[in-house]
Structures are given as C-alpha cells and as structure tokens.
Design a protein that fits this description.
The radius of gyration is 18 Å and the shape is globular. The two termini are about 25 Å apart. It has helices spanning about 190-195, 220, 270-280; strands at about 10, 15-20, 35-40, 60-70, 70-75, 80, 85, 95-105, 105-115, 120-135, 135-145, 155, 170-175, 185, 200-205, 210-215, 225-230, 235-240, 245-250, 255-265. The protein has 3 helices and 20 strands. The strands form 4 sheets. The protein has an 8-stranded antiparallel β-sheet with strand order 8-9-10-11-20-16-15-14. Strands 4, 5, 12, 13, 17, 18 and 19 form a 7-stranded antiparallel β-sheet that branches. The longest helix has 13 residues, at about 270-280. The chain is mainly β and about 280 residues long.
C-alpha cells in the first residue's frame, strides 16, 4: 500500500501520465487539498500548472469550491456580496484519510472537508486512467460529497454571491499557460464568450500541441454549466453552483463525474467528439 504522504503516479500503457499528491504542504490561504500535477500527454507534454503567478491557489487538477457554508475551499480571496474579492480568514482544507484502492491505473480515496475545526463534508473520490489510442488517454474523475453535519450544507460561487459570470467551483483543471491562448470549442460553438457559462455534452481546450476534451459523464453532471477561461489564463471547470446554491441535506450525497480526454496534437471537432464518446463509454 502506498504511504499516504507519497504521491501516486498514474500510468497508461506503462508511461507515467499523472502525479497525484494527497497531502501537499501548502499555506492555509491556498486551501490545501489533493491535486494532480503534472498531468501529461502520452508523448510527455505537460497540460497542467501548479500555483502559477497569476493564481497561486490553482493546483493542477482537482476539486475546489469557493463557498461551502461561507468557508473557502478554493483558495485566495473570497468574493463578498456588495464588497468584492476580500481577504478573509475562512479557508478550509480537504484532508486525505485513506485509500480504498491505489494502483497505477487508478485510485479510490476517502477525504474530509474541514474548516474552523469542524467537518462539513466527507468525500469519496475515484480517479482512473485508461488508454484510448496511441496518442490519447482518458482521466475519469468522480467525486461524491456527503453532508456529515446535522443541518443542510450549501455550496455557492461568486456568481451566486453577486458576481455575474463567475460560477466557478467543483471539478477544475488549470492548464499550462502558453504564448498564445488556447482554442476552446464545443460541438456547436467556439470561443470563450460563446462557451463560458453554457451547458454542453463536451468541451475542448486545444493548446499548441495538445488537446483536452472534457465531458460530463452523468445526466446531473451534464446539467452543470462550464466555467471557461482562455484569454486571462487557461482553465476549465464544471460548476456546482451556476445560478443558485447547491444544497445537500444531512446524510445526502452530491455526485459528479467528469471524463477528460488528454491528447497529443490539436484535435478537430469531429476527432474530439469521437474520442470523448469512446472515453465516456469505456
């Protein structure tokens, strides 16, 4: 069994494609949490970024939420209604407790979401890596959040707190920043303005020599809007709290599953659609 502090290296076809860090040593302001970084294509091109200068709280691939009952599990400043981004001492952390499974092709992890000394949520996270072609693989990421308190727990975003267009929070992938902004498109739209905040079965982000294709793999996940940034920085998320707060009753569980194709080269729309269909159906 892998020691809890040792990173887990995911492999596809014998090649390392992802490094999963369970207990990072990070300041409280970054909302410490497990993350994947670096994630690479099969050719070895890095497609994630860790604590970049523009947003030091962006940690590769993981789950980050800016508002869980007023506590910040995203990192950085908190958006306060009628006040704007504000430095608050309200950061929570996601704490690894155990692996139920830990193999080179995937893991099942138990976590506790803790803030101000109290546990708000308990999470089961499943991460799996599988080969699609000789130049593409899929990262299958499922997280289940269970309310372990005696009352309802609600999840919000800057959008639900008064900042239009900022519904980030949930699964989030910070991609590598390059000289040119990546291209972003869905099956029917193209460009950040056209796809940000919209719902689509899949969404592709294409850099200089790589493409990521994200897909909600359950009906409820597909109902969540996409959070997209390309001009300011390259990042894609699936929003838990788009127009309204997500409420989880005591003992109840919210589940989301995102499958991401990680491909070498810049995929055309039909290529992206074909690969993501294969990835989701595996």
């Amino acid at each position: 069994m892998t020691a809890p502090d040792a990173p887990v290296v995911l492999r596809v076809a014998g090649r390392p494609v992802g490094r999963y860090v369970t207990r990072p040593e990070l300041p409280a302001r970054l909302s410490p949490r497990p993350y994947l970084h670096p994630v690479t294509t099969l050719a070895g091109t890095a497609v994630t970024e860790l604590s970049p200068a523009d947003h030091t709280h962006h940690l590769g691939v993981g789950v980050a939420v800016p508002d869980v009952e007023g506590f910040n599990f995203w990192g950085g400043r908190t958006y306060v209604r009628d006040q704007g981004p504000t430095e608050l001492d309200n950061h929570g952390s996601q704490r690894h407790t155990a692996f139920q499974l830990c193999d080179p092709d995937g893991l099942v992890e138990e976590l506790r979401w803790v803030a101000a000394g109290a546990e708000l949520l308990r999470e089961r996270r499943t991460v799996a890596a599988g080969e699609l072609t000789d130049s593409a693989w899929a990262l299958d990421f499922t997280f289940s959040l269970t309310n372990v308190t005696s009352g309802p727990v609600t999840i919000g975003s800057p959008a639900t707190n008064g900042r239009p267009g900022a519904a980030y929070g949930g699964f989030f992938w910070r991609a590598r920043k390059e000289v040119r902004a990546p291209k972003v498109f869905t099956a029917s739209a193209e460009g950040e303005t056209a796809v940000h905040g919209e719902r689509a079965d899949w969404l592709a982000l294409a850099g200089a020599d790589w493409t990521l294709v994200f897909a909600g793999a359950t009906d409820v996940t597909r109902r969540d809007p996409w959070f997209v940034r390309t001009a300011e920085y390259p990042g894609v998320g699936s929003s838990l709290a788009g127009e309204r707060r997500l409420a989880i009753a005591p003992g109840e569980t919210a589940v989301r599953r995102i499958v991401t194709v990680v491909a070498d080269g810049r995929l055309a729309r039909d290529e992206a659609a074909t690969l993501v269909r294969k990835a989701v159906s595996q």
